[in-house]
Amino acid sequence: MFSPGAAMLGPFKMAALADLVAAALIERDTSGDVLWTWSYPSVSPQQRDLLTRKSQLAADPANTPSFMYGQWQRQWYYIKSAQVQEGDPLPKVTHFSLVIVSKDFNPEKYETFSRILCKAYSRTGSPAAMLQFYLAVVTRGSCQSEENGTFLVKEFDPRKAYATGSVKDIVNRFGVESILIYTAILLKKKLVIYHPYLDGLLETVRAFPAFVWHRQNWTILYTNVDLVEEELEDLKSSGHYIAGFTDPMVESRTDLYDVFVNLSDGEISVAAHAKESMAMGKIHKDIAMAMVQCAEDDGMENQQVIKEIAKKTKELLNKVKSLATPAEEGGKPLITLDALRERKMAPANENFLFSLAAAEGLAEL
Ligand SMILES: *[C@@H]1O[C@H](CO)[C@@H](O)[C@H](O)[C@H]1NC(C)=O
Ligand SMILES: *[C@@H]1O[C@H](CO)[C@@H](O)[C@H](O)[C@H]1NC(C)=O
Ligand SMILES: *[C@@H]1O[C@H](CO)[C@@H](O)[C@H](O)[C@H]1NC(C)=O
Description:
Helices cover 41% and strands 19% of the residues. By secondary structure, the chain is an alpha/beta fold. The protein folds into two domains: 6-156, Beta-Lactamase (2-Layer Sandwich), CATH 3.30.450; 163-274, DENN domain, C-terminal lobe (Rossmann fold), CATH 3.40.50. Helix 9 links the parallel strand 9 and strand 10. The longest helix has 21 residues, at 302-322. One of its GO terms (cellular component) is late endosome. Keywords: Endosome, Guanine-nucleotide releasing factor, Signal. It is found in: Late endosome.
């Protein structure tokens, strides 16, 4: 879909290298105690508490997720957990979790990288071996893994990570109701996505921001939130979001969402307070039909479906811009509610176009 040309390698590489923030190690010992044992360069005490809880090492080790990721306080964390094997030089440890903190969203990149660090730790029993790899990646953008060739940061394009989650599957799952998801994200609403299992949640929730591809903004994604204060506070500090939960109690927390998506039964519900702003009109119906048609087309891959939806969005934005009132000298043309009313559209369409203009910073508020 996108591969950096020679001219782009320089700046792209620099940006990629600056993304890593820290690495850390949490261990579970033979008596079941969980300890934070290493970090580089440093991790705050609050971050330690959060990451230790997220690793789930203190719970039944049989259920520890092998890889998970999320966002907290504007940084991404990736946690890879492993069981210590017989013969590893770690006699007092039964399980450990390797944590990477970074500024970018790229699960494939950090899963590969953390696998290399975990292997190095299992083999040597020493964080020094991991630090070597970490520093190589920070300074050179690559490291030589023992069994699997060279790990190259620049092979993990961010746009590829954005297009990895399947919008096509989501549209096929929800059919014409997918328009509720699209509209909610486009209008910068709060979405809560529920799935009973973490792996199912992570696989699906990452695709939602791709419904608004033109924004390329995965900062609104909170993949895996628990109903605890430190996480909810962080979530609420972001005015709008797409937040994944595995705790069914979240459904009763209507203060957290405008739209609730249950991935386990394919139901979408709009909270009472958001019903008016989510009213559907002809514009929605047309987009819904177009989305479903693309997604049902076996010849179309996920990336094409994302592109087709982006095309529809662009048409919509062009329509919105065409309704703008010419600006006075120097200002940019803005859409006013009065100008929209003069067009005598159906209320649902008028309401939607004005909200969209507001979400895109094109409306006079
Ligand atoms: C080596 O790389 C391949 C392809 O990326 C991957 O499927 C495999 O799991 C890797 N093996 C190890 C030991 O990292
Ligand atoms: C992404 O969205 C968030 C939340 O609206 C916003 O604060 C941030 O500026 C956006 N980032 C970019 C790069 O547009
Ligand atoms: C989601 O759907 C499943 C299957 O119908 C249902 O059992 C469950 O209660 C729903 N969960 C939530 C949180 O809505």
